Amino acid sequence: MRMPDARWLKQRLHDAFNRHDLDEVIQCHSQDAVLVTPAGVA
Question: What is the total count of domains within the chain?
Answer without folding.
Answer: 1
